[in-house]
């Protein structure tokens, strides 16, 4: 059995992009996460210390990605997934990183990766 903790539409401002002009501006990335875990310990105890804390994860990602200076959203996705697997009690993660407005003809563009187990 696999449970999921969800974070949807997490907006993070950062400096990112392939082109020189992108390194001079802030742009918004939008993250969607499925975090595979067992929610029974937190549900049975009603104890946040036994939960996959979506607020703590959102704060950690906002701080880390906000300070990242990379070209590709692939790099953001891979580094974020590895950080989450290392620092939080999750078995796996499905992570979508979207960059709305990057392609004028598209509502949004992005990448989606799955790392670890249980997704
Ligand atoms: N697969 C990717 N393609 C592109 C990326 C990216 O991060 N991954 N980035 C760019 C530019 O930075 C673009 O967002 C500027 O409009 C182009 N292609």
Q: What does this 3D model show about the protein?
A:
The protein is α+β, with helices and mostly antiparallel strands and 119 residues long. It has one domain (3-116): 2-Layer Sandwich (GTP Cyclohydrolase I, domain 2). The chain contains 3 helices and 5 strands. It has a 5-stranded mixed sheet. It starts with a strand and ends with a strand. The structure holds the ligand Nc1nc2c(c(=O)[nH]1)N=C([C@H](O)[C@@H](O)CO)CN2. The ligand Nc1nc2c(c(=O)[nH]1)N=C([C@H](O)[C@@H](O)CO)CN2 is lined by residues 17-19, 22, 72-74, 99, 102.
SSE topology sketch:
Blueprint: E1 3-16, E2 27-37, H1 40-45, H2 54-67, E3 69-70, H3 73-87, E4 92-98, E5 110-116
Parallel strand pairs: 1-3
Antiparallel strand pairs: 1-2, 2-4, 4-5
The structure holds the ligand Nc1nc2c(c(=O)[nH]1)N=C([C@H](O)[C@@H](O)CO)CN2.
Residues 17-19, 22, 72-74, 99, 102 line the site of the ligand Nc1nc2c(c(=O)[nH]1)N=C([C@H](O)[C@@H](O)CO)CN2.
Offer a quick outline of the entry.
The chain is an alpha+beta fold. It has helices at residues 40-45, 54-67, 73-87, and strands at 3-16, 27-37, 69-70, 92-98, 110-116.
CATH topology: GTP Cyclohydrolase I, domain 2
Number of strands: 5
What class do helices, strands and sheet pairing give? alpha+beta
Q: Rg from C-alpha positions?
A: 15 Å
Number of domains: 1
Shape: elongated
* Cofactors and ligands: ligand LV4SOB2L
What sequence of helices (H) and strands (E) makes up the elements?
A: EEHHEHEE
Major sheet strand order: 3-1-2-4-5
Distance between the termini: 11 Å
Sketch the major β-sheet: 5 strands, mixed
Relevant CATH superfamily: GTP cyclohydrolase I, C-terminal domain/NADPH-dependent 7-cyano-7-deazaguanine reductase, N-terminal domain
CATH class: Alpha Beta
